[in-house]
Amino acid sequence: MSAPKLLRAPEQRRARDGITAWLLDGLPGASGAHPGPHAETVEKTHSWWRVMCLTGVDYFSTLGYQPAIAAVAAGLLSPLATLVLILLTLLGALPVYRRVARESPRGEGSIAMLERLLPWWGGKLFVLVLLGFAATDFLITITLSAADATAHAVENPFAPDWFQGNEVLLTLVLLAALAFVFLRGFKEAISIAVVLVGAFLLLNAIVIVVSLFHVAGNLQVIDDWWLALTAQHGNPLVMVGIALIVFPKLALGLSGFETGVAVMPQVRGEDDADGVPRARIHGTKRLLTVAALIMSAFLITSSFVTTLLIPQAEFQDGGKASGRALAYLAHQFLATASARSTTSARSASSGSRAPPRWPGCSTSCRATCRATAWRRTGPPPCARSCSSSRPSP
Question: What segments bear the compositional bias annotation Low complexity (predicted)?
Fold first, then answer.
C-alpha cells in the first residue's frame, strides 16, 4: 500500500480556493501566530468622503421614514423635537464618536474601549454579551431596512401589480443582491454607495426646496400650525418637556455613527512613525462631522415642511404619508417622473443600509473577540479548575 500523497503548497492553496478561502480569510495560520488585538489591515483604502457615502447609506437613509415617525410621536411638536435631536447629535453624539475614532483607529469601536476599562475575565464576558446585542442590532437593522425598502416599492403608485402579496420574496431577493455586492468587495460597495447617496440626497433636497417654496407662497400654513400648536400646548415649558420626552423615538440614525467608526479602516491614511494613523483619524473625524451637519440640515427642514404641508391624519396607520412623508410630498408637488425617481431612490437607499452593517459587525466582533481572548487574562476560574483536576497521563 502506497503512502498518502502529500499536497505541495500550490496544491494546498488551490484546495482552499473559493468559499473556503473566503471564510478563512484573516484567520491566523497553522503556525499559531496571532495578528494581535487589532482589526486586519485593509489593502485598498478610499477618500473620506467616499467612505462617508458608505456609512451615509445607513445614516441618511432614515430620512425615508424619520419625518413620518416624528410626526406620529410628537405631532405638531415634531420640528421642536427634531431640534432637540439635532442638538443632541451635534453636542453629544458627534464629540463622543470623534473621541472614539481617536481611541480606536482600527475600527474596533466603543465596545473595544469599554473592554480596555473592564478588568479580568468577568469584564471580558460582559463585553462578549454586549457584542451579542450589537450583532443582533446589526442583523435586525439589515432585515428591517430591506423590508422597509420593499414597503416603499410596494406602496409606490407606479409599482407593478405582482409586487402585491410578494413582499417576503422581494425582501429576500434584495438581501441576496446586497450580499452579492458586499461579497464582491468594498470597492464595488463604496462605488454603488456614492451613486445611491448622491442621488438620494439630491432628490430629497429637491423635494424639500420645492416644499419650502410652497410654504413661502402660502404663509397661512405657518399661522395655522402655530395657532394649533399653542391651542394644544399653551405653556412653552410643556412644549419643551414633551419634546424632551419623545425625542428618543426620533433617534433612528444615531447608530450610523458607530457604523462610521466601524468602517474607519477603509479611510485612506498611513500610519505615522509611532504607529498612530493620524491621517486616518483626521479623515474619520471630518467624515463624522460632515455627515452630522448634512443630516441635521435635512432633518430640521424635512420635519418643518412635512408638519406644515401634510394633514396629521395622513401620518397615521393606513394614511398616505405613513412611513413615507417625503415621498408623499414628492407625489404631491413634483411631476410623475420626478416622484417616481424620488421613491425609487428612497427604496434603494433604505435597502442598502445593509452593506455598511456587515463590515461593521465583522470588524467590531472580530477585533473585540481577539482583544478578549484568554491569553490576555487567562481562562476563567471554572476553566482553570477543570484543567487542574484533569488527571495527568
Answer: 344-354
The 10s digit of each residue's pLDDT in 195-214 is: 888 988 998 899 999 999 99
Residue type, 331: H
CA–CA gap between residue 331 and residue 338 (Å, rounded): 8
CA–CA distance, 366 with 108 (Å, rounded to integer): 8
How far is the C-alpha of 24 from the C-alpha of 355, rounded, in Å? Answer: 20
For 46, the 3-state DSSP assignment is strand
The residue ranges of every structural domain in the chain are: 42-375
State phi, psi for 2 to the nearest 5 degrees.
-80, 150
Give the 3-state secondary structure of 323-355: CCHHHHHHHHHCCHHHHHHHHHHHHHHHHCCHH
Residue 26, C-alpha cell as written in the block: 484573516
Global pTM reads: 0.74
Any alpha helices (H) in the chain, and if so which ranges? Answer: 9-15, 19-23, 48-59, 66-74, 78-88, 94-103, 110-117, 120-155, 167-184, 186-217, 220-232, 236-246, 255-262, 278-309, 325-333, 336-351, 354-371, 374-377, 381-389
Q: What pLDDT digit, counting tens, does each position of 2-51 carry?
A: 554 444 445 455 545 555 555 455 444 434 444 444 444 445 788 999 99
Asked if 356 contacts 263 with a C-beta cutoff of 8 angstroms, the reply is yes
CATH number for the region 42-375 comes to 1.20.1740.10
DSSP label of 16: T
